[in-house]
Amino acid sequence: MPNREKPSMVKGLKQLLKYIATRTAAYLATIFTGVTLTYIVVKAMPVDAVENILFNIISVTAVYDPASIELLRRNLYEILGMGGSPVESYLIFIRRVFTFDFGPSIIAYPTPASEIVFNRLPWTVGLLLTSTLTVWVTGNLLGVIAGYFRDRRFAKVLESVAITLYPIPYYIMALILIFLFAYLLRIFPLGGGISIIPEKLNLEVILNILWHSILPAASLILPGALGWSFLSSRTLTMQTLAEDYTRYAEARGLPRSHILKRYILRNILLPQTTVLALSLGGIFGGALLTEIVFTYPGVGQIAYRAIFSGDVYTLMAVLFLSIIGTATGTYLLDLLYPLIDPRVRYR
Amino acid sequence: MGTVTESLRRMGKLLITLYMGNLKFRIGFTILSILVILGFAVSPFSPTNTRSWYIVPRDRPPSYEYPLGTSSMGRDILWELCASIRNSLTIAFVTAMIASHIGLFLGFIAGIRGGVIDRILMFITDTFIIIPGLPLLMVVTTVLKRYLTIPTLGMLISIVSWPWPSRQVRSMVLSLRERTFIHTAKLSGMGTFRVIVQELMPYVLGWHLINFTNTILFSIGTESGLAILGLSILDDNTLGVMIYWALNWGYALFRGIWWWLAAPVATLVLVFISFYLVSIGMTEFMHPIARR
Amino acid sequence: MIVEGLKAGYKLQTIGSSEEVGVYVDAVSGVSFTLYRNEVFGIAGESGCGKSTLIKAVYGYYEPSLVLRGGSARIYGAKGEEFDTTRMDRGLLEKRVWWKHMSYIPQSSMNVLNPTMRIRDHFAEILRIHVGMKKGEAYQEARKYLEEVGLPVDALSAFPHQLSGGMRQRVVIALAILLEPSLILADEPSSALDVINQKVALTLLREKQEALKNTLVIVSHDMGVHGVLTHRMAIMYAGKIVEIGRTADIFWKPLHPYTKALIESLPRLGDKSKRVGLSGSPPDLKKPPDGCRFHPRCPYAMLICSRAEPSLREIKEGHYTACWLYSEAVGEPR
Ligand SMILES: Nc1ncnc2c1ncn2[C@@H]1O[C@H](COP(=O)(O)OP(=O)(O)OP(=O)(O)O)[C@@H](O)[C@H]1O
Ligand SMILES: [Mg+2]
After folding, report:
1. How many Cβ atoms sit within 10 Å of the Cβ of residue B102?
2. What is the C-alpha to C-alpha distance for residues C329 and C21, in angstroms, rounded to an integer?
3. In this structure, are residues A86 and A43 in contact, taking their beta carbons and an 8 Å threshold?
């Protein structure tokens, strides 16, 4: 008789709920601790934001009266929630986190920090979403093919290329690409997100944006698609090929294309979705260095400027997004993976 | 201590076997040795101080006199490169010494003790994993800018480098713990510590070596990233700092002084590839399925 | 099926340790036998004597390290079509022979089902690919078939890991019989199971064989299985067949000293006398001994046994052995 585990519905449900509860608790706790730790570090930055703004205001308005400057200074501390004791400002900060209102920015005072970040978000997400998905799809396809035909010449060539590209950080790749395509061949622009002032979104603007994002995207895609994504799916493919069930499928006379699709792809795509979920979670963190190297107008640029001008709130808004993104990626994966992969259960 | 010498001896033997048996390891190790020689044996003979400005004619392309050319800062790029290799490798070595051993220690404790200790340690590890490392380091280096030296920079980078080795060692220990020989050792009355050292160490040591190598890779990458952003030790020589000056001060590409940028970038690429080859050579040796 | 002088073995290539480079394991060394329609044929022998290798070589399934060194293995389809599996390439075997005319149950069947595919798809894919059925039709057929072989129908929608070991084994057996091939090669189809499941699995195999009147080869080191199930059997020792005959003859009138030792070591009802097993251990197939491979352990060894190899000869009707003891030319040399 089938020896299938059939725990009573109630027991199964209880177990599931318990699993979800512990995972959710851990998820919230890591976010909280992560945000707090980051906050403490960020607060220690030596650049005094208030003095920064004060300096700007004074130079624009030409107010030199010491009393009004002092008043202004006190007001600014108040507005920025930086006046009180460290504990007080921490509590203010936590309250703001819940509403995602991080207070006014300093790099573009008085625009709210969250608004600045949200304005830049489409740039970063657009660039990273496209390149992450491209990396995942092409890397996996190439990896499976190279793993399946591992003795062919092209597979070996691909492997050597991957081994060369994989360890190179994307920003070094960015420099190499700039050197080759912008300096030597002069095909692509040296940087920037767009070179015309957009009045409204039309085809020309979109094409111009795309034109500017080709090199940044390539710097992310090359080490990825021909690097980790390729190498990991190649290794997984070779492992799956050595499994008893794949070899027995061959012995049953099933055609190669069928085995590739139903036995290999199916079994390796499951672990590979893990990687995809994690890298999608990392999207909000941006590719800071790529953005700097290409002067690409994403959230990474904002974070960079925020650090140099002591803009605690804008920086925290960026970091918060990134922490949430990564943590949520892992969390959702833990919850959903047992649904996708029949081999895994909730523990 | 006997176990330490024993471990070192084992590692030495492992290296020799690897060098003989694995092509990738051999290539990586050879390139790496050349870089180490350039950095540590050749660079002390530098005829000029690689940190001073305007000591040789500026902007000279590669020639017989200056094999790699000179920069707009008036430095001989060859000698600056050698010093940079030394410093970059030193930073990375410090990071790897600290981070991979913290990882080894915490991963071991978590894996062996399990239960509450495991959960607490993994919670801390996970927290560090979700914090975006580069921005955090950027902030930390801004805060501690005055104290940045070659070794302290290596220490700072290890703040964000230990979680992955720790996770790796833990899962390694967990899977080893299930194997029968550990149970036998426990049953035969060996203390927990003896079990760890005698039964698990030989297996974990190989992976530790891989973690060590990967942490070196990570550290060099991070340092050059920080440097490109202007957050490294700008008055010393590292590969990243060379890139920083070439890009941000010299506008090397706009002005056509490509050799200034090409030298550190090409060297970095060599460093990355050689360490990576060493790392996968070891992995393939340890995990034969990847070999075929 | 007719197997003649089949030679196959493993080429070992180990990176690093210098001693094993280029070593050849002589696992099947000139094996010949003939199988008839409507019979159950057993292969017995100690662990490592080459039983599984023989099955793989006959089936034509060569993993990277397994190489064919000579001989032929001809199988005959239900309509008398002849295929020599040693002369056909992989693609041809896949298309023409495997599963349609000949199927194979591997030794460790626990992990041979795709963990991400439901049981019904394992059946359906064979029906679709080898028979050309449509998906819906194949599912219906799979359900009908499972009922017929006595497997619970709700196993169809299960994933492999949700089934017990015994169930999985029966699924694998059912897969092998699905297309009613004229030859079924079963390598230890029951050895990983407990006694009850063993019986269920073997009964399934035998009932199907009786219904189909085809040829079933059962490899087992368990002589009990052979006694109950097989009509004829072969005894293997160190890569060679040392004796072939009707199972009853092998059990009651064994010829070869190795077979005798094997039979004598079996526990018998009411017999309490202590069994003397064979001394020594089987030879290393990387460097097999000259002459008869059994001679270092043989209590009757003669001079010639270490010099020349005895060939398989018919001693009584349908009963063959390869041993110098039964040779007329046993003029003790010198
Ligand atoms: N993949 C392989 N590579 C190298 N040698 C192998 C391989 N598989 C088997 N051998 C060797 O070939 C010989 C025959 O092995 P085989 O598996 O055919 O034995 P068997 O009779 O089926 O044993 P068992 O009863 O244990 O299944 C043994 O000496 C074995 O060590
Ligand atoms: Mg076998």
Report:
1. 17
2. 41
3. yes
What are the C-alpha distances in Å from A241 to residues A244, A259, B184, B259, C91? 8, 10, 34, 47, 18
Task: Show the CA angle centred on residue C168, arms to residues B177 and C232, nearest 5°.
Answer: 115
The average pLDDT across B48-63 equals 81
B75-89, B234-248, B276-290: least confidently modelled range:
B276-290
Residue C270 has a pLDDT of: 62
Task: Evaluate whether B73 touches B245 at the Cβ level (below 8 Å).
Answer: yes
Task: Fill in the DSSP letter of residue C71.
Answer: E
**Which of A67-76, A145-154, B152-161 is least confident?**
A67-76
Burial class (CB in 10 A: 0-12, 13-18, 19+), A347: exposed
Ligand 1: list residues with CB < 6 Å.
C 10, 12, 25, 27, 45, 47-53, 65, 107, 221, 285
Closest CA to B248 of B229, B269, B268: B229
Nearest residue of B to residue A150 by CA position?
B292
Considering the entire predicted model, what is its pTM?
Answer: 0.80
User: Residue C312, by phi and psi: left (phi above 0), alpha (psi -120 to 50) or beta?
Assistant: beta
C179 Cβ neighbours under 8 A, 6+ residues apart: C99, C100, C103, C126, C130, C131
Residues of C in contact with A3 (CB under 8 A): 163-164, 166-167
Instruction: Kindly tell me the sign of the dihedral angle through the C-alpha atoms of A264, A266, A269, A271.
Output: negative
Residues C102-140 have pLDDT tens digits of 999 998 777 899 988 999 999 999 999 998 889 889 999
User: How many C-beta neighbours within 10 Å does residue A111 have?
Assistant: 14
**Percentage helix, strand, coil for chain B under 3-state DSSP, each rounded to 5:** 75, 0, 25
Prediction ipTM score? 0.87
- Report the alpha-carbon distance of residue A36 to residue C74 in Å, rounded: 75
DSSP state of A190: S
Q: Does A263 touch chain C (CB under 8 A)?
A: yes
Three-state DSSP at A83 gives coil
The predicted structure's pLDDT at residue C44: 93
Sequence letter at residue A153: R
Report the pLDDT value the prediction gives residue B155, as an integer from 0 to 100. Answer: 93
Query: B70 phi and psi, to 5 degrees?
Result: -125, 160
Distance CA C33, CA C35 (A): 7
Q: Is the dihedral of CA A149, A151, A157, A161 positive or negative?
A: positive
Cβ atoms of A239 and A233 closer than 8 Å: no
Rounded to an integer, the average pLDDT of B256-272 is: 90
- Which among B144, B178, C160 is positioned nearest to A3, based on CA atoms? C160
The number of CA neighbours under 13 Å toward the Cβ of A22 is 10
**Is residue B175 less than 8 Å (CB to CB) from chain C?**
no
How distant is the Cα of C147 from the closest Cα of chain A, in angstroms? 13
The C2-12 sheet, strands edge to edge: C23-34, C2-12, C66-76, C82-84
Is the confidence at residue B92, as pLDDT, over 90?
Answer: yes
DSSP string, C220-285: -S-HHHHHHH-SEEEEEETTEEEEEEEHHHHHHS--SHHHHHHHHTS--TT--SPPP---S-PPPT
d(CA B245, CA B72): 9
Check pLDDT > 60 for residue A346.
no
Q: How, if at all, do strands C23-34 and C319-321 pair? A: unpaired
Q: C187 alpha carbon to ligand 2 midpoint, in Å?
A: 7
Buried b (16+ CB within 10 A) or exposed e, C25-47: bbbbbbbbbebeeeebbbbbbbe
Instruction: Decide: residue B152, CB within 10 A, 0-12 exposed, 13-18 middle, 19+ buried.
Output: middle
B250, B252, B276: which is closest to B262 by C-alpha? B252
Q: Are C305 and C295 in contact (CB under 8 A)?
A: yes
When scoring A30, A42, A165 by the number of chain B Cβ atoms within 10 A, the one with the most, hence best to mutate, is A30
- Contact predicate A342/C159, CB 8 Å: yes
